Structure formats: C-alpha cells, structure tokens
Amino acid sequence: MSRKKELAKYCDIVSRIRIDHTAYADILDQLTEAYDAVGTTATPVCLLVTGESRTGKSSVVRDLLETYLPTQVDDRTIRTVVYAVAPAKATVKSLLESLLHGLGDPYWSRGSLGNMTQRLYTLLDAVQCKMIILDEFQHLCDKGQKQSLHMLADWLKVLLESRKYGLVAVGLPTAASVVHGHPQLAGRFDDELRMPLFDWRDKGSSAQFCGILRKFQEELHPFQLPALDSREMALRFFLASAGRIGLVAKVLDRAVRNAVRAGTVKVGLDDLKAAYTRAIWSARIFPVPGGPFEAETSALLAKGVQETVFANAALEEVADKSAAVAVYGKNKSGPSGDDDEEGHPEPPEARQQAHQSPRQMKKATGRPPLRRCPNRKKELGKAL
Question: How confident is the model at residue 149 (pLDDT cuts 50, 70, 90)?
C-alpha cells in the first residue's frame, strides 16, 4: 500500500474532532435543561443563542440534536426536536414551507397560511415534538423585513403558546434585535446565551485558546505539527482564526489534507501558511505583511492588529442554508452525520437541497405553482 493510500483514512480527521470549552459546555448544559423543562413551566421555554460566525453555535446545536435522536414506537416514529434554518428574508409562508417540508408533508408548498399552520400543528403533534430549534434567526430581521417581522413574531408567539413547544433561536448577534424589538417575544425569552470570541489580551481567554490547540494536536496523531499550544504558535493561530474555533479547524483541515496528498505526516510552518492562504478568504487582507505564519511575533503584537483581524473576519459571508431542515427525536445512539461547510447540522435528506430555497425546490420538482394569497394579513389572522 502506498503512503498516500495509507494516509487517506485521515482526510476527515479534523471534522471528527470535538473540543469543548467553558462557554460551549455551559450553553449545552442550559439547552439540555431547557429541553427537560418543556411542559413543566408556566410559560413556554424560549432561549436565544448568539455569536459571530464560526464560533461554535451550530456545533453546540448538533450536540443537542445528537442527544435526542428518533425512536420507533410500534409503527410510529417519535421525534421530539425539530430543527430548521430560517430562509433568507424569512416570511411566515417561507418558514412554514421549510418546516412542513422537513416534517414530510407532500404538499408543503400549498395552501393558505391558516391551512399550512394547522397541518404543521398536526405533524408536530404526530411526532410528539417538544422543542423547535430555529437557526439563522437573524434572517427574520433582514433588510426590508420590518412588516414581515411583526407577522412572524405574532405567528411564533401563537405557535409556542398553542402547544407549549420550547424554542431555541440561534443566530448572529443581530438576531437579538428580533427578540428585543418585539414585545410579544421579549417577555418570553430568557437572557441571551452568547458564544464569545476568544480574546488574546484576556489571560483566561487566551489560556483556554491554548488548551484547545493542545487538544487539537493530541487528536491529530499521527501528523507532526509544531507545538500548537506554545505561546508563539497560539498567537499565530489566534490571529489566523480571529479567535474563532471554526477557522482554526478549517486551517488545520486544509493542512492535513495537503499533507495526505503529499504522502507525508509532517506539517510545518510553511505548510500552515499555505493552508491558511487557501482556506481563509481574509488572508489577502491580513494587516501584517507575511501573514500570521510568517511575520515576526513583535509585528503581530503591534497595536491595532487584533482589532483589524476581527473586523476583517466579520466581513466573511455566511452561506444561506434556507432549506436545511431536520427532525430529531430522543435517545442518543451516536453521531448523526456530517456537517455542511458552514457547520449547520445537516440531515441526509436535506443535503441535496441545502443551497435551495423551498420555492427553488418546488420549481425543480415541477410541482404546480402555489396559489397566491391576495391578503397576507387576513390569512395570518386566520392562522392565529
């Protein structure tokens, strides 16, 4: 067997590594407690999880989903957690389409808002749903969404109160404006759970970051890398990733795959630089010549470098996963599958549609066009 073939089994080694940190573990604990509390509280259980892109929001959701997988009872499948990604510029209609499609409704794109809402209730009751997880929650407040946001907030309020479902909303920091800007939702949500960025200037935060790199290095056997948890290498990785664990994993994943193609287990500083340049789009605008894996440490520690790196990373576009919908149940039995590129938990039945909106999928399947509703407010009134 050639060296390349022997190493090929390690191509996905980074994607199989799971590393927790304090905030991650705390949020997962609170989500688990919220699931257990559904149906036992005086008011619906509603949580908001926010954080910048690639900070681990989708990973913590995936861990929760893997804890509550489907179970078969007689001839019925019990699924207690429904996961959906809010479509871009979401409306009540598009959100209903996504949820109904994920629940297996053959006519998910048809009907009035009232009819679709009643079908959603029927399907959620049939699978004994306890909790709904709505990812990319910030899409509810996309530009031009002011009128739709009020309708969505009213619809969500009635949905939660009608059956006492729990709701976990997950999104970028702007998602908080959806909750705080609408009195009907603000009073129902607990305090925001924030997945933080690591900060090199904070001793505790930088120590945690070094610990995560140490764990990565342990899990990357048999590959030989520089001491990732050394102060110098940790600084380089911190600036390369802007303090985001998702970007650390992306650089390491590229470096490992490059090594596998080259038939070697050695990954040096030059290899990390090449991986960073290819994997991170903001590498071309890094504020220090030579980039994080070539520049002198003194230059990387210069005033303003961290702030510029953070600002550049915040510009990264996050792909719209408007149709990634899944239904999960209870009883953990193992990993549920691969993630998509942006880290959303992606079920097998949604993989091929992950980059399409429900309307795009309807066009691709050749289904009859949806009857247009002339008065959305009137239809929403019926639904509520």
Answer: confident
